[in-house]
Task: structure prediction
Amino acid sequence: MTITPKKHQIECLNKIEEDFKIDNKGLIKMFCGAGKSFLIYICLLKYGLNLSVVVVPSINLITQFNEDYFLNKEKQEYNDKYYDKKFKLMTVCSKNELNDKTKIALNCFFKES
Result:
């Protein structure tokens, strides 16, 4: 599997790389559907350190991000093949709305580093 960013995402990744040379934090602001979650995942793989914090405005987006990237078999295989990053996850929510299936899968996938 190859993960290929689109042109506007490549421009954003280049800007992120420039900014990370100055400071190790960033904020991605793009329109809905532009692929922010995809960019965050790529940044976690490329630049993620012992602690990487991803903040999203809703529980639905937390669940979507986890399912689309951390729990996705193809994305797991891509990570294992090219980066071998081991993630620990801490989800902070104002309400306990993550379903049991997601909780169990996340606990199984995230390994100690």
